[in-house]
Amino acid sequence: MSSDDRRSSRGGRIGAAFVATVLGVGVGLLAAPQAGSDTRRALRRRLIAARMGLGSGIDDLEERSRPIRRAVRARAEELRRRGRERYEQALEDLDEDMEDLDEEEEEGSRGIGTLVTLGAGIAAIAYLLTSERAAPTRERVREAAATVRDEAEARWERFRERRGNGHRFAERGTRIDPAGSPPPPSA
Asked: Which CA distances in Å does 171 have to 161, 167, 168?
């Protein structure tokens, strides 16, 4: 039975009970053996008595349920305390496990990291040297290397020219003036 069927069935029962109540009150009023004012007075007295009886019944029910409510609260507090302890223990265990994993990772990753880095470098060099897609990059690397080589050669030539113009270095690494003056005395 679906929830819609249950709702409509329940609604039908409630509606039928309401109609039966209205009909019962109507028939009761029509067939009443006394006048309306007497009936109303009697109904008022019965309602007051029922209210008093209901009030004392509620008080009695509340008195009887008080120990049960205390027990339920105590049990709920106990369960809350246990749950909090288990939660905190689980967090501590998780922290310890994470620390162990970090230590294992540090120990194992040093060698593996080096190997991975080395392998990646070799793969990049192989790709750069063999791939057609890397041809423009290879050309830029060759040009950069040629520029560095040319600059180094130019600096070497300038160095040799300065050295050839009379700048000589003594054996101890002190510079001798080309005019032939002796180096300053060392302390």
From this structure: 20, 13, 10
